[in-house]
Amino acid sequence: MNSSIPGSRLVYSTDTGRVCPDCAKPMTACVCKALRKAVPAGDGIVRVSHETKGRKGKGVTLVRGVPLDAEGLAALGKQLKANCGSGGTVKDGVIEIQGDHRETVIAALQKKGMTVKRAGG
Predict the structure, then answer these.
(1) Residue 95: its H or E element
(2) How many CA atoms lie within 13 A of 41 on its CB side?
(3) What DSSP element (H or E) covers 79?
(4) Listed residue (51, 57, 46, 47) closest to 100, CA to CA
(5) What is the secondary structure of 5-69 as a DSSP string?
(6) pLDDT tens digit string along 50-69?
(7) What span, in angstroms and rounded, lies between the C-alpha atoms of 11 and 26?
(8) Would you call 67 helix, strand, or coil by DSSP?
């Protein structure tokens, strides 16, 4: 690694292959993967809200605070989208479902045994 260039970092080594940009260890021995898969800490309450900000007036139902890892969150998002009959996505630990489906989402999450609160107006 050329340390004379400020801000430079090692991205590949002929000895170990690709290198993690966060912990600078080989990808096979990366300790960041375990940290990224960890379930985010919260208060155990899932909050369901409706929002239109930044979406040109189109409303989405937001589900925050679900105590699942990334794979579990994606699977739950897929199931909720199918229940509501609409599209959506999972971004940064938040499930977004197109349209106002708060009641349907709250009922589905309560059926799974989660503590759910309606947030916002």
Answers:
(1) strand 94-98
(2) 1
(3) helix 70-84
(4) 51
(5) STT----EETTTEEB-TTT-SBGGG-SHHHHHTSPPP--SEEEEEEE-TTTTT--EEEEE-----
(6) 988 888 888 999 999 888 88
(7) 9
(8) coil
Residue closest to 63 by CA, chosen among 74, 87, 47: 47
Q: Which residues contact 23 (CB under 8 A, 6 or more apart)?
A: 30, 31, 32
The angle formed by the CA atoms of residues 31, 63 and 61, to the nearest 5 degrees, is 140
DSSP bridge partners of 95 = 63, 90
Residue 70 burial (CB count, 10 A): 14
CA atoms within 13 A on the CB side of 7: 0
Residue type, 37: K
Predicted confidence at residue 69, as pLDDT, reads 83
Which one-letter amino acid corresponds to residue 95? I
Q: Taking phi first (over 0 means left), then psi (-120 to 50 degrees means alpha), and beta for anything else, what does residue 24 get?
A: left
Tokens of 121: 């107006």
Give this prediction's pTM: 0.65
SS3 content of the chain, % helix, strand, coil (to 5): 25, 25, 45
**pLDDT digit string, tens, across residues 97-116:** 999 999 999 999 999 888 88
